[in-house]
Design a protein that fits this description.
Low-confidence stretches: 122-132, 295-303
Radius of gyration: 21 Å
Number of strands: 2
Shape: globular
Distance between the termini: 32 Å
Strand order of the largest sheet: 1-2
Largest sheet: 2 strands, antiparallel
Mean pLDDT: 86
Order of helices and strands: EHHEHHHHHHHHHHH
Strand content: under 5%
């Protein structure tokens, strides 16, 4: 078995094997959350601490599984395990700042809503429900939602899966297939909601289906960032930021004055247009020296 410091390469041993390996990784991540069987809700401090330990353990073990699959590489066709996982120094600061900046531009509308609610605070100001639910930085919920969950999910579902998928599927197909494992993994929340039965079944399944779709869309965006930059830091920070912002509270927009509603909608559209326009140039793989786009990796067959 190779070590993390030797040069490695991931060849294509078949699409089925690559996808099955990703299924095993996703199952290990989700399954680890239910090892403790405490019977407590997911937001109970004891449950949170137990699950943090579980996902950190799975995250630590996944690279060893990759080492079992990897082949010996050469100087012309090989990288260290750290490089495959996006843990490297080249263009690190740019990889941290630029993808996060593009993501923040996408949220121009919600950021303006936050500005209205928390900085201007006119008489009768509307306080967005989502932002009131942001935990205090001293609370363990903050640690789970904005540090541990974004990091371990990006590490497991992007950094550990994409090196397996790209040799067989190419970069473009991998960007859209990898998020499916991420989206399906989030459906496990349904089991707990059904167990505690706080709502009717339809009120549980409909949000779960919606969550599958938007987590899959975000997963594709995050996979794009990871493949284009070859860094884990950008997807991690973008994921943490999106967790803080939540899904845009479109249902709250009618509650604002008419002139503010026009600005909010304009910023929503502008943010989307600017994000789409800036995404490719600000994640140029040549600048970041992304290994997924190096010619010797031979994974550009679907570009």
């Amino acid at each position: 078995m190779a070590t993390s410091m030797t040069l490695l390469r991931f060849g294509c041993s078949g699409v089925f094997r690559a996808c099955f390996s990703c299924i095993l990784i996703a199952a290990a991540y989700v399954g680890s959350l239910y090892l403790w069987r405490s019977g407590l809700p997911r937001d109970h401090p004891v449950t949170i601490k137990q699950r943090i330990l579980s996902v950190l353990a799975v995250s630590a073990m996944c690279p060893f599984g990759l080492l079992l699959i990897a082949e010996d590489g050469t100087e012309s066709q090989g990288y260290s395990m750290w490089q495959y996982l996006g843990l490297r120094g080249e263009a690190f600061l740019s990889a941290a700042v630029l993808p996060l900046l593009v993501t923040m531009i996408l949220f121009l509308g919600p950021l303006y809503m936050m500005y209205l609610d928390y900085l201007v605070e006119p008489e009768g100001a509307i306080h967005i429900r989502k932002m009131h639910n942001v935990p205090n930085t001293n609370h363990i919920l903050w640690l789970r939602n904005y540090i541990v969950a974004p990091f371990t999910e990006e590490f497991v579902f992007r950094a550990c899966m994409l090196p397996l998928l790209t040799p067989c599927l190419g970069t473009t197909s991998s960007i859209f297939i990898c998020p499916l494992f991420f989206g399906v993994a989030h459906i496990h929340h349904v089991s707990e909601k059904l167990r505690f039965r706080r709502r009717q079944d339809e009120a549980i399944w409909l949000p779960a289906i919606f969550q599958f779709f938007y987590t899959s869309i975000f997963g594709a965006y995050s996979a794009f960032l990871f493949i284009r930059t070859g860094h884990l830091i950008g997807p991690f920070l973008s994921h943490a930021f999106c967790n803080i912002m939540g899904f845009p509270a479109l249902d709250q927009i009618p509650l604002y004055p008419a002139n503010q509603r026009a600005i909010i909608w304009s910023l929503l559209v502008l943010g989307l247009v600017l994000c789409l326009a800036l995404l490719a140039p600000m994640t140029n793989p040549e600048y970041y020296q992304s290994l997924f786009y190096m010619e010797d990796m031979k994974i550009l067959n679907v570009q």
